[in-house]
Amino acid sequence: MKSFSSEAEIRHIVEVNWSDRWQVYQRLNELNIPCRCEINQPLQVEIANPQVAVQLWSVVRQFKASRQDLIFTLENSWRIR
Questions:
Q1: In b/e form, how buried is each residue of 25-43, taking b as 16+ CB within 10 angstroms?
Q2: Rounded to two decimals, what is the model's pTM?
Q3: Sheet containing 43-46: which strands, arranged edge to edge?
Q4: SS3 2
Q5: Nearest-angstrom CA–CA distance, 66 and 48
Q6: 21-58 residue pLDDT tens
Q7: Domain ranges of the chain
Q8: Contact present, 12 and 45 (Cβ < 8 Å)
Q9: How does the average pLDDT of the chain come out, rounded?
Q10: How far apart are CA 36 and CA 29, in angstroms?
Q11: DSSP letter at 49?
Q12: 2-80, what's its fold?
């Protein structure tokens, strides 16, 4: 992720595959995370607190991680409980 600041807010450019960008944007909107996704521009997300950072990490991971990695994580979380 690359960060930059603009007028009293900090936004981060999220590096995701261009084909997944719109789906990531939609999911972040569902979570009420401020973000922007314009045509031919990278996804930009406002990270206001650690909770938003973790939610962003989780959403991006769903698109970047392999299916096997996601299964492994899910199985591990079941074992921990």
A1: bebbeeeebebebeeeebb
A2: 0.75
A3: 2-6, 9-14, 43-46, 35-36
A4: strand
A5: 28
A6: 999 999 999 999 999 998 889 999 999 999 999 999 99
A7: 2-80
A8: yes
A9: 86
A10: 9
A11: S
A12: Ribosomal Protein S8; Chain: A, domain 1 (3.30.1370)
